């Protein structure tokens, strides 16, 4: 890092540096990773995050503390541990982000090789563990080794590419090439939509529809990779600990069986307890395994679904749509939005891991209830007696009566359809007197049924809230109380910060504006890149610019109100709103005339 800081030059040298000409502007700030706008080396940064995943997961435990600390000092220990992890893995990111590609590639290659040798030596010399057996470290750390091997190959590629660029064997990759997808996105906005929509495959229609004009930032890719590796580690630990716990339960059961066999009495407590323990051990072990698989798949699906929601929400903000957000979040505080970028990655990883444990435990409880309430009575042949005495029959009857009320209203108390093509009857009462009698007698029953529905509402809210606890992109609070969900507030602030810093229309406009300014000033060196016009068409002349302006205003009359106008004279009573309406009506009339001419020129069947 010291060498990278030495070759990094600062834009503004200090006055005292004039005494040392060679050190003037040296020792710049080394930025390990741009969490906002950077789109280069996205997968390299992702695998670098994967390399630090074991250390990040270790921060959740206190095994890295060399001594015990009081409870009030644990926060300080966590901060020190986080700084230690950041310093230990800083060279990975610094070598990937430095503009000096040769030095960064060489240092990154050596540092990655050092980490790989140390970890391999530790794994080979002490591979076993208390939970997973002889190959515990290899089973847990193989994603870590995979990420290190990828970084080794990546640093070698960076060195070879930098040497080829230095020898002028290949052109350098500019920032313009990295952000060219944004320029293409703006081009699609300026084009007319196709008459026929694009035919998509089944995978794009049902599973995932990729967008060539959108790229996920480094922050989202790194967060997803750490979450997936963390889920893998947590699943292994969860299954191993559960297997160890159930083995202890079986040992306890065997001990009780020995005690029962040693007793002379036939009707002792242990004899009646052993069959129930055997049954519980069998059911619990199978239920835990099934819910482990299901909760893992759920968490992995959530990890990818968060990426899909990120793209969907960001593209809605690009279009100016904010209706999918609560009204109080339409204008978040700038400080909150910028701070949300800092918090998001850590919170998303923690929410994913803790959400996996919470969802797994809740699913395990429901699995036990289902097995003991439904499966075992059916196996033992007591299903009818269970159904007559179980609360499930009551719940089914309550639901059936609610459905009966809706069916009766649909048949007898709604007027007929206004048109045969209507899907439903209109919201207009029929047989009013009969409806009032129906409403009167069901009033007393609905009071009693409201109690059960209240409990059902509470249970549904708890289940859905627990199920979505790892979904940071969706609030688990009721409408009006979204601000009490800090995770959702972090998500909103993060997407707004990305919206303001990576909006393709704004970025393209700024690049074009800076490019025009630099062209007027001369061939000055600048860190800003401009999008080159690949189509080859040039925009020249004031007449063409004015014509394009007129065409834009005709197509978008609402922009007339947003234009900067000169001060009107006192005798000038023209209202810009009236002008906008006039232009809109003229545009509509022109479109209608165009459509009529097109219809007249089209040959009819008689002409053919």
Describe the structure.
The model is unreliable at 524-539, 568-572 and 598-608 (pLDDT under 50). The protein is flat. The longest helix has 50 residues, at 269-318. The protein is an all-alpha fold. It has helices at 2-7, 42-58, 74-88, 90-97, 101-125, 136-166, 175-178, 180-190, 202-206, 218-262, 269-318, 334-379, 383-389, 391-412, 432-467, 486-502, 504-521, 542-555, 576-601. It has 19 helices and no strands.
Key features?
608 residues; mainly alpha; 66% helix
What's a concise summary of this model?
The chain has 608 residues and is mostly helical. Helix content is 66%, strand content 0%.
Q: Could you give a short account of the major beta sheet?
A: none
User: Mean of residue pLDDT?
Assistant: 77
Radius of gyration over alpha carbons? 34 Å
Q: What is the molecular shape?
A: flat
Count of beta strands: 0
Classify the beta-strand content into a percent band. Answer: under 5%
- SSE order, as H and E? HHHHHHHHHHHHHHHHHHH
Low-confidence stretches: 524-539, 568-572, 598-608
**Structural class, from helix and strand content?**
mainly alpha
Helical percent range?
55-70%
Q: What's the quaternary structure here? A: single chain
The total count of helices amounts to: 19
- Terminal CA distance reads 79 Å
